[in-house]
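Quick bug: FAD-dependent pyridine nucleotide-disulphide oxidoreductase output formatted oddly.
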Amino acid sequence: MSARFDAIVIGAGQAGPPLAERMTKAGMKVAVIERSRFGGTCVNTGCMPTKALVASAYAAHLAGRGADFGFAAGEVRVDMKAVAARAGAISARASAGVESWLRRMDNCVVYQGSARFESPGKVRVGADLLEADRIFINVGARAATPHMPGIDQISYLTNSSMVRLDVLPSHLAIIGGSYIGLEFAQIYRRFGAKVTVVEMAPRLVSREDSDVSAAIKSMLESEGVDFRVDAECIRFARRGEDILVGVNCLAGEPEIACSHVLLAIGRRPNTDDLGLDATGVAMDARGHIIVDDQLRASVPGVWALGECNGRGAFTHTAYNDFEIVAANLLDHDPRRVSERIEAYALYVDPPYAKIGMSVAAAKASGRRVLVGERPMTRVGRAVEKGETTGFMRILVDADSREILGAAIFGTGGDEAIHCVLDLMYAKAPYSTLQRAVHIHPTVSELLPTLLGELKPLA
Ligand SMILES: Cc1cc2nc3c(=O)[nH]c(=O)nc-3n(C[C@H](O)[C@H](O)[C@H](O)COP(=O)(O)OP(=O)(O)OC[C@H]3O[C@@H](n4cnc5c(N)ncnc54)[C@H](O)[C@@H]3O)c2cc1C
Ligand SMILES: NC(=O)c1ccc[n+]([C@@H]2O[C@H](COP(=O)([O-])OP(=O)(O)OC[C@H]3O[C@@H](n4cnc5c(N)ncnc54)[C@H](O)[C@@H]3O)[C@@H](O)[C@H]2O)c1
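Here's what came back:
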């Protein structure tokens, strides 16, 4: 059947549903196409289930530290079925909420199936051919599973299957020591699995400053996670019940025998089966849709939002893409991607939160840079909570007095860093925050103190 709409949204992830709502409220007739679970990666296989698992792992870890706080909880035994059911229920509730929101939306027709372009203004979903002058692509990304030697001889997990796992691996080997790999490494170690992270680069989370990589590694090692970095020769084989992961052809233990393998070696955009070749929409070498500062693709009437445009791989950047497109389309407000300040957190415990420039980027910028730094052992709130791992750091431009960036690897850091982020959006001088009186006892109260202790960056 053919149907004509004012707009078609492909993908019900973080950007598509709120955009559909804004457009329908503006009187447009909108089609939303989703081929899998409503809410996309964050809700079903990303942030929500992983942060639910982080919470279970944190609770188990804290219970095991009873002696540090003056109580004995006895042996902590994790019930993986109950843990997985809790995470699954949180995801399922959120996904059902997105679906019913869309299905009840006036002027919105929901199609379930895989969308494929037939031409710039025409999209097929099953037997239906939909037409619109405006098409918004919000198809997200999935785990990269490149061909690696021996991979076809084993069964492996990705984030999608891992969040549903309801057994405890005896030995989990995680390939990839970055955001996804490290969150799962700590979660499963805290549940009681032996965990080995295999990373081909010389250090973990190699986009971060090297002292950050080292601090996160040492924290995870102190909890018993094993690492093989510089693993340049990764290959797989089966030996009875075991999976063998070959890590190095030249030196060290050549193989790790494990029960489960998780691939966490990056994401690839879901643009390969969208039929984009029928549209002329330009993509980069990794399959991301090339967009301008207002998220327009190279063909008029097509926009790309969220992870598939390569301009951000986070839920908050995907949602901000919706805000940018809605502002330009409906509010005569020329919001742009380039106004966004990079900000994210890695949810190991304690979390690592980062905004703006790293130390390496600040040095490379050629500016005169001031730095304020303090270990979490000198943050009262962290001491009282018995969670003193990590540090906080703020970078300031010595001439303009604006904040360039900040990093907090420490308890509450994912929340506290927003005081600094908001100041950066306000383009206010650092002295505004330095003079603010924060509540005691918080992690945030040390931010003004740090700014009173600035020194030139070595
Ligand atoms: C394990 C993990 C943990 C994460 N944790 C965090 C975190 O803590 N914080 C954070 O900010 N980010 C996190 N992320 C990243 C975050 O989940 C994603 O960046 C975000 O969900 C991307 O949203 P999106 O709207 O671009 O795409 P998605 O949410 O992936 O939505 C895309 C939707 O499009 C659908 N689709 C795809 N192709 C088609 C088609 N042809 N036809 C119809 N429908 C289609 C998909 O089924 C999907 O529902 C995490 C990711 C992972 C994997
Ligand atoms: N807390 C968060 O916000 C959060 C959490 C998880 C994921 N995410 C998002 O998901 C994205 C993807 O995360 P990711 O960790 O999968 O990917 P990534 O691109 O951040 O890291 C991939 C890692 O795998 C390594 N690697 C690549 N190929 C390898 C190979 N063949 N063998 C061994 N190691 C290999 C790389 O050196 C790198 O360290 C992130 O960029 C992030 O935006 C966000």
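Actually, after a second look the formatting is fine. The first strand starts at residue 2 and ends at 4. Closing.
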